[in-house]
Amino acid sequence: MATDPHPPYLSPGYKSTALRAPARPLPMPKLGPDAIELTGPVFGHQELGALDHDLTRQHAGEPMGERIIVTGRVLDSRGRPVRGALVEVWQTNAAGRYVHLVDQHPAPLDPNFTGAGRCLTDGEGRYRFVTIKPGAYPWRNHHNAWRPAHIHFSVFGTAFTQRLVTQMYFPGDPLFAHDPIFQSIPDERARERLVARFDLDTTVPEWALGYQWDIVLDATPMEA
Question: Domain Intradiol ring-cleavage dioxygenases spans what residues (predicted)?
Answer without folding.
Answer: 70-98
